[in-house]
Amino acid sequence: MRFAVTKVCASGAKARAGLLQIGSSGVETPALLLSTRKGLPAFMSPDLLSSLPLPDSLLLNVCPTHFIEVPPSKTISNIGGLHRMLGLPDHILVAAAGESTECLPSSDATNKFGASFETPAGRKLVKPSDYMELISCLQPNLWASLADEVPAWVNEKRNKTSVERTLRWLDACIALDAASGRNSLGVVVGGSSIEQRKLCATEVSKRNVSGFWIGGFGLGESVEERCSLLNAVTDCLPLGKPRIVSRLGLPEEVLEGVVDGCTCFTCQNHTRAYLNHLINVHEMLAQILLEIHNTHHYLRFFRSIREAIKAGEFDIFWK
């Protein structure tokens, strides 16, 4: 993996543009990391995924705990890894256990040995050794370490415990990794505590990681708290490595409906009247077509961010 920062805002904003290169696949950043369910975005088959703009849609977020029970991780390993099983050899797969709120470990059931996750077969305790066995079988391009993410309302003692566990598990994951952490993302946690988040970010930066997964957001904090926490964390992280922020909210101005002139597959091939009919009769195809449209616009949104940074006009774009 190679990452290079190509442009940094000259103003007070901390926005930066970069290039993430993994093998023959390259993605410009900032970029959208598409959330998936067992490796594919919701309502989207591989052929529909290929219809999205490239290379913007190459980044896929997979949750290792989705593969605890079915299919068995050993089966995926025998196939040749998740890329071959999904038929997506050129996509960049980023594995992280906390990629969505439903995949988060229970903060009450997590203990010093590992994180507890809900699976189709019930609650299961996942230790660093179990987690790294999953990573070894899935063979993602990048993986985030096992972490103890907590909601915003827990007390300072619990925040401190989450940082200590996350750092200990990070060390254990790197020690168990055959590549010694070369493709790892260190997770930054600490709940709503700025002090604990800064401590975690500083300590994670000292480890042999390729980038950072800034976790613990979307769990009860306000927008104002989120901005303060992000500012505190990014100040402690080195500039030359990629950063991924999980579960951020929607942009303030979301493009709604079918926009005239939209170049996505949905708008080029179907009318608004047809979409309205599908929605009214509760046809599943409506969700598929809307997912294609919304993802297409989200990818364009991130492309606009990159172009604004490169042109030195991000402050104008942001306001």
TrEMBL record:
Which Pfam families does the annotation name? TGT (PF01702)
Q: Name one GO biological process term.
A: tRNA modification
| UniProt superkingdom | Eukaryota
* Domain spans labelled tRNA-guanine(15) transglycosylase-like: 14-262
Xref: InterPro entries: Queuine_tRNA-ribosyltrfase (IPR050852), TGT-like_sf (IPR036511), tRNA_ribo_trans-like (IPR002616)
Which NCBIfam families did the record assign?
Answer: tgt_general (TIGR00449)
Any idea what this protein is called? tRNA-guanine(15) transglycosylase-like domain-containing protein
Organism whose genome encodes this protein: Triticum turgidum subsp. durum
